[in-house]
Design goal:
Layout: E1 39-44, E2 50-54, E3 59-64, E4 68-72, E5 78-82, E6 90-96, E7 101-106, E8 111-116, E9 122-127, E10 138-140, E11 143-147, E12 151-156, E13 162-167, E14 175-180, E15 189-193, E16 197-201, E17 207-211, E18 218-219, E19 226-230, E20 235-240, E21 246-251, E22 260-262, E23 271-276, E24 279-284, E25 290-295, E26 303-307, E27 310-315, E28 318-323, E29 329-334, E30 343-348, E31 351-356, E32 359-363, E33 370-375, E34 382-384, E35 390-393, E36 396-400, H1 414-422, H2 432-443, E37 447-448, E38 451-452, H3 455-467
Antiparallel strand pairs: 1-36, 2-3, 3-4, 4-5, 6-7, 7-8, 8-9, 10-11, 11-12, 12-13, 14-15, 15-16, 16-17, 18-19, 19-20, 20-21, 22-23, 23-24, 24-25, 26-27, 27-28, 28-29, 30-31, 31-32, 32-33, 34-35, 35-36, 37-38
Helix pairs in contact: 1-3, 2-3
Length: about 475
């Protein structure tokens, strides 16, 4: 096994919270000296960009310029490569495991291709050359859902035939949320936001309800059957996805449309985060009441990420960790770039990763200390937890060993761990019931198939269910 040493770049130094505007008490950590980082393998595509997606139990699908690869997770060896006759970026890989098929889209040709996961052979392709948009697929059961310039289309994943089409002739942008169903219901609902918001049957395309909340509407991923709604006004709303009822309306007081809204990815109580410039507000998703508001000293644009009841506010040159329930600042971490748009946070097997400006940091989630850092020598290096925790760096993928300081044994990737807990053969088979069952096991401190369910498992199952 090749040992690839990391490169240290001492750009970060954890400092005190000067200028923080909040009622919380800040506890700021001091960085530790990073430990050695080793990799199991690296895969170089020779291109400028490579992104990892879920594949099979022992492989990962990766898309880049003109090519999709299947890569063995244990060895890093290429198992096949598919080129859909393009030199542009090939992206958005979705899969249907029982059909053993992956679905990829091509921006240049605006086409969708169905690929045999085992062999890399093309099974069928569909042309959506009707406008500037290109198909961005996600899958549920045996259906593939795509959006184009003015349409939402459901396609039979086995043969590529259209099942239903919904037209939005005047929409500037169409937002699609994967099928959702509450416990006890049999018909999943697809949530669509365009010129209005609609709930339609995932299997037939029949409209179940429609509302017109206002211009420039967008919706969040449903949590507990509730989705947040944002329009051009300063108010936000809570929408019952199954019935179309508005549960509450809340005025943020921002004076304009919130710059960002997210429902988080689980582990804690459901909340909505909305932003206005340098301010983040946390609103209880069930009641519509404000929990806390946080403003930082750096100014400009911020992005909140909620993981396991911790809200990570990504700001220029800094990341704040905030208790989602209380609003207390737990710690802060300096980052090298002056824009939050280049910053990301991931949690894999209780290990927190912050990526910014091509540098990836493993960070102690309790104290905010640096455990190690790796300079990818690219501008967009990041860690991807849907593809087995691989580091993406330009056209290269690295697989870290994810070893602790006193062990060289790699931990099980969260995807394989969840498959063992749920008994599924692929994460694409995860259902809302699986999410509910994992949460129940965690609350009862119970095990499934010999694995004690942790809060990380709750967060990961919601994330993977959302991304499918």
């Amino acid at each position: 096994m090749t040992k690839i040493p990391f490169q240290r770049r001492n750009l970060l130094k954890l400092i005190g919270g000067a200028g923080i505007t909040t009622t919380a008490t800040s506890s700021i950590a001091t960085a530790n000296k990073p430990s050695e980082l080793e990799f199991s393998w690296k895969f170089d595509s020779g291109g400028e960009r490579l992104s990892a997606y879920s594949g099979t139990d022992n492989s990962v699908l990766a898309s880049g310029l003109g090519t999709v690869y299947r890569i063995n997770l244990d060895t890093g060896n290429e198992e096949w490569a598919f080129n859909p006759d393009t030199e542009s970026y090939v992206g958005v890989v979705s899969t249907i495991s029982n059909l053993n098929t992956a679905y990829i889209s091509v921006r240049e040709t605006r086409t969708l291709h169905a690929i045999d996961i085992e062999t890399g052979d093309e099974r069928w392709s569909a042309d959506f050359n009707s406008g500037p948009s290109y198909p961005q697929p996600f899958t549920s059961d045996n259906l593939v859902f795509v959006t184009t310039e003015n349409n939402v289309i459901a396609i039979n994943g086995a043969d590529g035939n259209k099942v239903w089409t919904i037209e939005y002739p005047n929409a500037q942008y169409i937002q699609l949320r994967r099928p959702f169903s509450t416990v006890g219901t049999t018909e999943p609902i697809v949530l669509i936001a365009g010129t209005d918001v609609r709930g339609v049957s995932a299997t037939t395309g029949d409209e179940k309800w429609a509302i017109d909340p206002g211009d420039n509407v967008s919706v969040t991923f449903p949590r507990n059957g509730i989705s947040g709604v944002r329009t051009n006004s300063s108010t936000i709303q809570a929408l019952d996805v199954m019935t179309g009822d508005i549960l509450w309306t809340f005025d943020t007081g921002f004076g304009n449309r919130p710059g960002y809204m997210s429902s988080g990815r689980g582990g804690g109580e459901p909340v909505l985060h909305v932003t206005d410039g340098d301010t983040t507000m946390c609103v209880d998703l069930a009641t519509g009441t404000e929990r806390w508001t946080f403003s930082h000293a750096k100014g400009s644009f911020v992005t909140p990420r909620e993981i396991n009841n911790v809200t990570y506010v990504l700001a220029p040159e800094i990341v704040y960790a905030i208790d989602t329930t209380t609003g207390d600042v737990l710690w802060q971490f300096d980052t090298p770039t002056d824009t939050a748009r280049e910053t990301d946070v991931s949690l894999i097997e209780s290990q927190l990763y912050i990526s910014d400006g091509g540098i990836i940091y493993r960070v102690d989630s309790e104290a905010g200390d640096t455990i190690w850092e790796f300079d990818t020598e690219t501008d967009d290096g990041q860690i991807d937890h849907t593809g087995g925790g691989l580091i993406e760096a330009g056209g290269t993928l690295y697989r870290p060993e994810f070893a602790s300081s006193d062990s060289s044994t790699p931990v099980t990737a969260p995807r394989q761990r969840l498959l063992r807990i749920t008994g599924r053969s692929s994460t694409e088979e995860l259902t809302q019931d699986d999410v509910s069952n994992v949460i129940t096991l965690f609350n009862r401190n119970e095990s499934a198939n010999g694995i004690t369910v942790t809060q990380d498992d709750v967060s990961n199952v919601i994330t993977l269910f959302e991304r499918n």
